[in-house]
Amino acid sequence: MHKTVLITGANRGIGAELSRHYLANGVHVIGTFRSEEGLLEEMKQAFGEQVTTLKLDVSQPAEFEQFSASLNQQPIDILINNAGISESAWAGLEKVSADNWQQMFLTNTIGPMLLTHALLPNLRASTQKVRIVGMMSSQMGSIDDNTSGGFYMYRSSKAALNAATKSLALEFASDQIACIVLHPGWVKTRMGGSNAPTTPEQSATGIINVLAEATMSDSGTFCTYNGRTLPW
């Protein structure tokens, strides 16, 4: 049974739903938020010391060393890099700007990778046979699956995350850390919109099951919240 999970962007959307499910199963949740605690505040009232909330902006790697130190060598069994940003609507190349593209990569790709590196001592401190790093990507990061185009910034940031996580899986194999790329589905959240067919609860339940059943042989794979393998 996993004892501690750290979830970035845990104050709303899929992150909040993941937190609720883990808490209901007795897992200690370390949830991060960028500006406001949001739904984490309600969870703290309901679950008390089972919830730890910490402020973190994943687009600010300079903060990661201090963030790691604040955990005081707390073992982490599962790290879910959930926080991210997207483009609000379909956009052609004429809508792309250098500043926005750089911010997308910093938040969706560079931040999760460097945060994982900063938390490596915490993952190594876990007593679990297999420690887990879940990278929240998207089917839109699949190059093979791209049949509609657009979303240049978001697609490329997630494709880069996928490639980097594959390398991470190889590097962390000797530490018994399984790194898995996740597609949460098209989910009814602020990011996914009201037309999305998947509820946050369905997505979160599926992701938790995928991570609970993960072994080292699953490390470096790209799969959906219900366990279906996706093409790169």
Considering the chains and any ligands shown, give keywords for the structure:
232 residues, alpha/beta, Rossmann fold, seven-stranded parallel sheet, 7 helices, 7 strands, 15% strand
Strand content bin:
15-25%
State the secondary-structure class: alpha/beta
In DSSP terms (H or I, runs of 4 or more residues), the helix count works out at: 7
Biggest sheet overview: 7 strands, parallel
Distance between the termini: 31 Å
* Alpha carbon gyration radius: 17 Å
* CATH architecture field: 3-Layer(aba) Sandwich
In total, how many beta strands?
A: 7
- Unreliable stretches: none
CATH superfamily: NAD(P)-binding Rossmann-like Domain
> How much helix is in the residues?
25-40%
How would you characterize this protein structure?
The protein starts with a strand and ends in an 8-residue tail after the last strand. 38% of the residues lie in helices and 15% in strands. The protein is of the alpha/beta class and 232 residues long. 41% of the residues are buried. Helix 1 (13-24) crosses helix 7 (200-212). The chain has one domain (4-224): NAD(P)-binding Rossmann-like Domain (Rossmann fold). It has seven helices and seven strands. The protein has helices at residues 13-24, 39-47, 64-70, 98-118, 120-124, 152-171, 200-212; strands at residues 4-7, 28-33, 51-55, 78-81, 131-136, 177-183, 222-224. Strand 2 (28-33), helix 2 (39-47) and strand 3 form a beta-alpha-beta unit.
